[in-house]
Amino acid sequence: MAQKNWQIYLWRCSLCGSKAYGKKPPAQCSKCNSEANRHVLIPKQDQNKTLDFEKYLGMPSLNSFLYLVGSALDDKVNVMCCNSVTQINFCPLRVAVVINKNNLSHDLIKETGFFTLAPLTKSQGKIAHFFGRNSGRQVNKLENYTYKLVNSGCPVIDGCLGYYECEVEHGSTVEFDSHTLFIAKVIDGSLNLNKPQLTYDDYKQELRF
Ligand SMILES: Cc1cc2nc3c(=O)[nH]c(=O)nc-3n(C[C@H](O)[C@H](O)[C@H](O)COP(=O)(O)O)c2cc1C
Prior knowledge:
By secondary structure, the protein is mainly β. The protein has 2 domains: 9-56, Rubrerythrin, domain 2 (Single Sheet), CATH 2.20.28; 61-206, Electron Transport, Fmn-binding Protein, Chain A (Pnp Oxidase, Chain A, Roll), CATH 2.30.110. The chain is 11% helix and 34% strand. Strands 4, 5, 6, 7, 8, 11, 12 and 13 form an 8-stranded antiparallel beta sheet that branches. Strands 2-1-3 form a 3-stranded antiparallel beta sheet, with no helix packed on it. It has a two-stranded antiparallel ribbon with strand order 9-10. A hairpin with a 5-residue loop joins strand 9 and strand 10 (155-157). The longest helix has 9 residues, at 104-112. The chain is globular. The relative contact order is 0.18. The model has no long low-confidence stretch (mean pLDDT 88). It binds flavin mononucleotide (FMN). Flavin mononucleotide (FMN) binds at residues 35, 66, 78, 80-84, 98-100, 103-105, 128-129, 132-137, 200, 203.
């Protein structure tokens, strides 16, 4: 017998833990504005339970630093917040960055092959939130910020702890279903790590999720 398509599912936001019913995950979490892909489906048998692993959703045990990723194409400049960043090797200095395919930044980086990575300071939680919860597809996120453009044309917001300018090695790009893993060589940069860096945990605590 064909399965009926009227089932309503229960979804949990992996960032703040709030729940929502629906056929699909909510486009945005009503509490913290996280996007649909940050929601996980709660299996029917677990809907009334608080599972131990739920405390770890969002993987705070993999607490990581937060960065602003800047990109540009023609006269479009854009910045998003990103935590999925890691160093790959020293010489040449390479980084790996994972970007959701829905993000405007994804399309700009894929097209041009360049981006900037700017480490945030602990006092920049609200900036992380603004650039991480709004899309350049809907708003010009840079209009109320001062920034500089590096050689590749990518922006770096003033007040960050410096930047790395990165060139994608397209041959090493890995496509997943929802995200792309970009491997990039650091071609320029300037850092002044004179203040502590903002982490995912700091961010969550500041916003009291
Ligand atoms: C703390 C935090 C960390 C984030 N980390 C990532 C990430 O690692 N990769 C990603 O694709 N999006 C990440 N995001 C979500 C993007 O910043 C968000 O989808 C943004 O609106 C994309 O902007 P754009 O469409 O202008 O590129 C993060 C958001 C926040 C608040």
